[in-house]
């Protein structure tokens, strides 16, 4: 065969096909690796976001319980028997519930050290409120109610966070954790503008290699590329696209998300990639064998 008939300059066709096969198999392997990395990291981010979402729900419930504690203090103050019976069982139950919910919510804190500091501050407010209600009679009930529903300070038109009573501080805490939740869901591992290029890059390279293979096979062997090569490309692309689509999760989908890392989805994806590798290998085999063992 003359140099003009050989693809890619003077390189032997079998060498070219072997290199193309290695490149295609490498892209399939890279796709599998990226899939595993993305679903693992994205799964961690979504699990953290779910914990934060649960913490926010606990804080909201704690706010409701704080309101019940305030109502219980108002009812106790009307009885004028605080010195005898204290703030009452309703107040004790509500504040105990607030403490339990705050402890539970701390485990889902997503605001870092600042968030932990705010949790500690709110728990301190709760402790102060309970101490005032139980130790100073009628005056203590008044002071405890102020500690529960005092209005926050303002800086111009804006309220200053964590300068009001317990109920206001719980609202401030909920807002901080909600902001942190939004940041979690904007993580690079959940960001479509980053995931699509990352996961589709190996597919794009694989497509170029498949096209190059088609040119080599058509020019030298006067045949069409093996259909299995196209199937392998489609299988690899389907895994990449499905991963990108399922990895995008919003707040409304956190309760029961369908993730690319789900057990059955992962099993299908890995089987598809394994099949893509096998098909790609088999697609090159007839042409390489034909050149090594030419027909007589």
What descriptive keywords fit this protein?
mainly alpha; two-stranded antiparallel sheet; 2 strands
Calculate the terminal CA-CA distance, rounded to whole Å: 16 Å
- Characterize the overall form: rod-shaped
The strands making up the biggest β-sheet line up spatially as 1-2
User: How is the main sheet built?
Assistant: 2 strands, antiparallel
Helix percentage range: over 70%
Query: Whole-number radius of gyration?
Result: 32 Å
The stretches of 5 or more residues where confidence is low (pLDDT under 50) are: 1-5
Structural class computed from helices and strand pairing: mainly alpha
What's the average pLDDT?
A: 87
Count the beta strands: 2
What is the N-to-C order of secondary-structure elements (H for helix, E for strand)?
A: HHHHHEEHHHH
What count of helical segments does DSSP give? 9
| Beta-strand percentage range | under 5%
Short description:
The protein is mainly α. The protein has helices at 13-79, 82-85, 89-106, 112-135, 137-149, 166-185, 192-221, 227-247, 263-292, and strands at residues 154-155, 158-159.
Can you offer a commentary on this structure?
There is one protein chain. This protein has 296 residues and is mainly alpha-helical. 77% of the residues lie in helices and 1% in strands. The protein contains nine helices and two strands; from the N terminus they run H-H-H-H-H-E-E-H-H-H-H. Strands 1-2 form a two-stranded antiparallel sheet. Helix 1 (13-79) runs antiparallel to helix 5, helix 1 packs antiparallel against helix 6 and helix 4 runs antiparallel to helix 5 (137-149). The longest helix is centred in the N-terminal third of the chain and has 67 residues, at 13-79. The radius of gyration is 32 Å and the shape is rod-shaped.
